[in-house]
Amino acid sequence: MTTPQLHSEIAAAAARLKAGGTVAFPTETVYGLGADISNPTAVRRIFEIKKRPSDHPLIVHMAGSSCLPRWARHVPEQAWRLAEHFWPGPLTLILPRSPCVPENVTGGQDTVGLRVPDHPVALALLGALGPERALAAPSANRFGRISPTTAAHVREELGEAVDMILDGGPCRVGLESTIVGFEGETAIILRPGGIPLAALAEVLNGKVVVAEGAKRTTRVPGSLSSHYAPLTPLGLVSQESIGHQFGSLVLKGLRVALIGWSDQHFPPDIGKNEKVVYFSMPAEPEGYGRQLYAALRQLDQQGFDFLLVETPPDETGWVAIRDRLQRASCISDFKFQIDENDSVRG
Ligand code: TXA
Ligand code: MG
Questions:
Q1: Which ligand is nearest to the CA of 147?
Q2: 344 within some domain
């Protein structure tokens, strides 16, 4: 799976990490910014590079579920079930932290987020580090911005700040992992992500709770409403009102990118207006999720005044995508207004 060159880069990356460096590496979800959890200077460097507040916990990446007892002091039966079923894969389990996990990694929490990524480069890197070590790795972007799904995104955003970037191609999932916490044996979804809710429910015999409000926002910074945002104002608008909203923006002379998935709803002559671009997204959630962040980054660089996104279907398969778009948006249907000064921010 890995070429000889990549193989030697992985060995060099493992050496850098063991020496206290930081290495960005691919996972199946998004690229991570990795540091050895046992090295406090390296972990501090992650917070500095990302400009992330130090009380926001990091996810710990490990080579396999057999490492779980080293990093978690208690593993509920349902957590084992999920680990055995979905790892390696886009699932993070929040479990009581073992004394082997330093407090600076978990932002002072008594719990730790653990995951086994499903990417050959990430697994080879973790394998090269050995079972005694694990990698703290948040998404390799500045705090609050869009997660990177290619090595080029990491290079653009973090550049020289990171010691090394491993290129494993574009990420297969494209959205961050699903985060699951536990209250006793009840699994609670703290962040929807790469594992569909239906798949989780099936493994847990239907016993899945999705956290609401405060529970999400206090302990999961990925749940802050300003997260995952492009620099260009983004509005999330229903199929019914998108034509109207779009028309008002264009009448104001604004350059607008329209991001849709149901092409038939858009006027056929849309391409004739030079101020407008229509960006067509896949009409199924896997493809849409894979492309979303790259699309937002690309459109962010094209000098639009506004990104108008057609709300994806209200179906369980689209939950993670709807969640990220809501967090990226400054305006949604019900409070959409353009004030007298042409300000389009909500
Ligand atoms: O797919 C992913 O999860 C990617 C790749 C690189 O693995 N990582 C990622 O990390 O998205 P980050 O740091 O950008 O987001 C991690 C989320 C944060 O919202 C954090 O609060 C939450 O995980 N988290 C980590 N440890 C936690 C804990 N002990 N309790 C509650 N939330 C936790
Ligand atoms: Mg992140």
A1: 2
A2: no
Are 78 and 209 part of one and the same domain? yes
d(CA 296, CA 149): 11
Contact 41, 19 (CB under 8 A): no
**Ligand 1 environment, Cβ below 6 A:** 27, 29-30, 32, 56-59, 90, 92, 94, 106, 109, 111-113, 115, 117, 137-139, 176-177, 179, 219-222
pLDDT digits (tens, 9 = 90+) for 74-99: 999 999 999 999 999 999 999 999 99
From 173, 200, 223, give the residue that closes a domain.
223
Residue 323 CA from chain centroid, whole number: 11
CATH number of the CATH domain containing 320: 3.40.50.11030
pLDDT tens-digit series, residues 123-176: 999 999 999 999 999 999 999 899 999 999 999 999 999 999 999 999 999 999
Q: CA 346, CA 117: separation in Å to the nearest integer?
A: 37
The domain containing residue 187 runs over which residues? Answer: 4-223
Are residue 109 and residue 192 in the same domain, yes or no?
A: yes
* Ligand 1 pocket test target in 61, 103, 153, 179 with most atoms within 8 Å of CB: 179
Signed CA dihedral, 197, 145, 22, 95: sign only: negative
What is the total count of domains within the chain?
A: 2
